[in-house]
Design goal:
The protein is of the alpha/beta class. It has 2 domains: about 1-205, Rossmann fold, CATH 3.40.50.10260; about 230-455, Ribokinase (UDP-N-acetylmuramoyl-L-alanine:D-glutamate ligase, 3-Layer(aba) Sandwich), CATH 3.40.1190. It contains 15 helices and 18 strands. Strands 9-18-17-16-15-14-13-10-11-12 form a 10-stranded mixed beta sheet, sandwiched between helices. An 8-stranded mixed beta sheet has the order 1-8-7-6-5-2-3-4, with helices on both faces. Helix 9 (about 300-310) links the parallel strand 13 (about 285-290) and strand 14. Helix 2 packs across helix 3 (about 60-75) and helix 2 packs across helix 4 (about 90-100). The longest helix has 20 residues, at about 30-50.
Length: about 450
């Protein structure tokens, strides 16, 4: 079992292509199934302890993986039973079924067990389970102490995270070969529990990766405030939002942060305050310019945004500013550009997303020629070149006013420090989540900004 941070993410079609490539290179479907079933058996043996195991097998290759796992667990002396929703239908699944010498119980009447393994349906499902199968799965899951899904929980869509009907929440999901979008995109991700990858010996290259801890080393010994990165934050109507973003930039590692606009008496002494004018915006030392937190949507806000867009500084656009531009206006810029919309801001700028959040973020990145941080309980970061990074389930305590301003400031600090836009965005998302994890429950955004320093350390 491999932790998923930093590993590739494959859609159902990409997974089929990877399997086809392995088969073309001489690996049979039966061999792939043996590897998958063996990996599942090893994982179940470690997780189940001495408890009895019930494996639910469907008619396809996911069910075949379940039969292989059951045979291996039985050979290892474990107490294991099998229940099936029907006879196997694929050649590999039929061959795997022949390996299981025990009884096969009808799914509908199967008795529960302390450990339940769901190998009913894997990738490619596009509809809800039939009523009888869904009811049996739900009943057996409720009566188990540990629930394990093979590849994906039965009843979720692999590529967009849709949940078809009532799907139980599993404690563990064993992703075969590679993680899938459903393991990370909501609402399916909430049904997957802890996700671990079971290698099956196929190529898993992908333009999509799972967010991993970034390299956040200390500045070099000869660093000074400008080599660490200068961030300029444009203040708008809500001064507190801009100050939160500026505070976050300072605590995320920027060496110099300036607030452009009217002064804020309560701001930290370390925050440099300047007027928002052509001279301040022309400062060549600015490594990242941030506009949007608390900006407002009036004529003054539009004028400030036009000033920011006219610069050649790397730019982070957040909050209100995302309601004042179009993708066509943004794609004219040549300097690095990062947009940080939540769902409402995304819809205002790009229209309501159709299909998966991953596909929508990729399309938006191309339209705006920008790195997109599509925020939410699942966050997708996409670059115009097609590369994407998906963050897993977010800390629910981040649902507090100002947390988005803090994220924007952290990303701006990392961008100003010299990272590529995609890397800066990903590092900012990770740092933001780690700071929240360290704080525990019921924090406020002011605490979150300060906690970035400890998270970075």
């Amino acid at each position: 079992m491999i932790p998923i941070a930093g590993t590739p993410v494959l859609t159902a079609a990409e997974m089929r292509a990877a399997e086809d490539a392995a088969i073309a290179a001489g690996t049979s479907v039966d061999t792939l199934m043996q590897r998958a079933g063996a990996g599942v058996a090893d994982a179940v043996r470690r997780l189940a302890g001495v408890n009895d195991v019930l494996i639910l097998c469907g008619p396809g290759n996911n069910g075949g993986d379940g039969y292989v796992a059951a045979a291996r667990l039985h050979a290892a002396g474990r107490s294991v039973r099998v229940a099936a929703s029907g006879e196997p239908r694929t050649p590999a699944a039929i061959a795997a079924r022949a390996l299981w010498t025990g009884a096969v119980e009808p799914l509908a009447t199967a008795a529960p067990a302390p450990v339940l393994v769901d190998a009913l349906f894997g990738t490619g499902l596009s509809r809800a389970l039939d009523a009888e199968t869904g009811a049996a799965l739900g009943r057996l899951a409720r009566q188990a102490n540990l629930t394990i899904a093979v590849d994906v929980p039965s009843g979720v869509a692999t590529d967009d995270g849709t949940v078809f009907g009532e799907v139980p929440a599993f404690h563990v999901t064993l992703a075969l070969g590679a993680a899938k979008p459903a393991h990370l995109l909501q609402p399916a991700a909430a049904r997957c529990g802890t996700v671990r990858v079971i290698p099956i010996g196929i190529p898993t290259d992908s333009a999509t990766q799972i967010l991993a801890r970034p390299d956040l080393t200390a500045p070099p010994v000869d660093a000074h405030k400008f080599t660490r990165g200068m961030v300029a934050v444009v203040r708008g109507r809500m001064a507190g939002a801009a100050q939160l973003a500026a505070s976050a930039a300072m605590h995320a590692g920027a060496g110099y942060v300036t607030l452009l606009g009217a002064t804020i008496p309560s701001a930290p002494h370390a925050l440099v305050r300047r007027r928002l004018d052509a001279e301040a915006l022309a400062d060549p030392r600015i490594g990242a310019l941030l506009i949007g937190p608390g900006l407002g949507r009036d004529d003054d806000a539009c004028a400030s945004l036009e000033q920011a867009l006219a610069t050649d500084h790397p730019l982070v656009v957040d909050g209100d500013a995302l309601h004042l531009v179009t993708p066509e206006r943004l794609c004219d810029r040549h300097a690095p550009l990062i947009l940080t919309p939540h769902a409402g801001e995304f819809a205002a700028l790009f229209g309501a997303p159709a299909g998966s959040k991953l596909a929508a973020a990729r399309d938006a990145a191309v339209r705006a020629q920008a790195t997109i941080v599509f925020k939410g309980p699942d966050t997708v970061i996409a670059a115009p070149d097609g590369h994407a990074i998906i963050a897993g389930e977010a800390n629910s305590w981040l649902s507090t006013a100002g947390s988005g301003d803090v994220l924007a400031g952290a990303i701006a600090a990392l961008l100003a420090g010299g990272r590529r836009a995609l890397d800066a965005a990903a590092a900012g998302v990770w740092l933001h989540g780690e700071a929240a994890r360290r704080l525990g429950p019921a924090f406020i955004a002011d605490d979150l900004a300060v906690a970035l320093a400890g998270a970075r350390a």
